[in-house]
Amino acid sequence: MSEQQIVKIGKEQETPLLDIQGLKKYFPVKGPLGNLGGKKGMVKAVNNVSFQLFEGETYGLVGESGCGKSTTGRTILRLIEPTEGKAMYKNKDLFQLSGKESRKMRQELQMVFQDPYSSLNPRKRIGQSLEEPLAIHQIGNKRDRTDLVMDILEKVGMRIDHYYRYPHELSGGQRQRIGLARALIVNPKIIIADEPVSALDVSIQSQVINLLQELQEEMKLTYLFIAHDISVVRHISDRIGVMYLGNLVEEARTDELVESALHPYTQALLSAVPLPNPKMKKERVVLKGELPSPLHPPSGCVFHTRCPFAMDVCKQKVPVMEARSKDHQVACHLYE
């Protein structure tokens, strides 16, 4: 049996729009002399992750900082080259495409970054930044591009005069709307949203999330929504995958995951979500210790060093991802 057996969960009798199979991304750690010092080890940022995206859905990828969520998203788009695995899109492996093919395919897969300010050129006006992807993909002439920019600004809730402003003249929420507009302007099929609301105020977060949902319905979009806040992820996602130290440890439909989480790590994430009524009580799952280093991950189950239910087998054997119900799978020795 392979290191991690993946049971596919998704819409019945439907081909996935994007199928990630055994994705791995390892970063070499070098000595103080760089290449002369040789490799000191490998950081397993993403370790054998598999999941599927179906057309029109939102798949939430959640986990604490450093678990490999953002690396997963960037690797799918080949902003970072993968170490191993496949990303099947329209019967083509994105990791095997040539530069020209990849550039063409990238029009259909776009990304919204966590920090909109650093992803926008501070020397360019907003209109120039939004017209740039249209020029790269040779969409329309100069006049057509301006019209498309004006149209997308309106769709994301911005005014026409924002076309002439610079990024530093906008608020954080406005800049994130511009980042979303830049991804949408080439009419993609899939949006990978990497922590799109984590840097925003709570009131602005809800506005951006509602905007994402409205645009998804209007433009028939599919989202891979990456975040560390499971309360945000469960609000927008149809299905959720939980990552820990580069590994996918649980996956289920959102309502089932929230109501009956199986993995102790998922239970801990859900127990940390504040309740709307302070008088309501729930059992809090407290994790001890710090997140282990991905350079030297624990043997067996990578979560056993912090798990309150750890057994001897957890230290020795890697748990296999197995289905516990029709739409729920988990990698945990407690359920074997």
Task: Write a structural description.
It is globular, with a radius of gyration of 21 Å. The chain has 336 residues and is α/β, with parallel strands linked by helices. The chain has a domain of 216 residues: Rossmann fold (3-Layer(aba) Sandwich). Helices cover 29% and strands 24% of the residues. α3 crosses α4 and α4 packs across α5. An 8-stranded mixed β-sheet has the order 6-7-8-3-9-10-12-11, with helices on both faces. A 4-stranded antiparallel β-sheet has the order 2-1-4-5, covered by helices on one side. The N terminus is likely disordered.
Offer a quick outline of the entry.
The chain has 336 residues and is of the alpha/beta class.
* Fourth-tier CATH superfamily name of the domain at 1-31 and 38-107 and 222-336: P-loop containing nucleotide triphosphate hydrolases
Shape descriptor reads globular
User: Which class of the domain at 1-31 and 38-107 and 222-336 in CATH terms?
Assistant: Alpha Beta
How do the SSEs run, as a string of H and E?
EEEHEEHEHHHEHEHEEHHHEE
Portion of residues within helices: 25-40%
Gyration radius (Cα, Å) is 21 Å
DSSP helical segment count: 10
Q: How much of the polypeptide forms β-strand, as a percent range?
A: 15-25%
Strand elements, count: 12
Which structural category do the helix and sheet elements fall into?
A: alpha/beta
Termini distance?
A: 15 Å
What does the secondary structure layout of this molecule look like, with pairings?
Blueprint: E1 18-31, E2 34-53, E3 58-62, H1 69-76, E4 84-89, E5 92-93, H2 99-105, E6 109-112, H3 126-136, H4 142-155, H5 172-184, E7 190-194, H6 202-219, E8 222-227, H7 230-236, E9 239-244, E10 247-253, H8 254-259, H9 264-271, H10 312-316, E11 322-325, E12 328-330
Parallel strand pairs: 3-8, 3-9, 6-7, 7-8
Antiparallel strand pairs: 1-2, 1-4, 4-5, 9-10, 10-12, 11-12
Helix pairs in contact: 3-4, 4-5
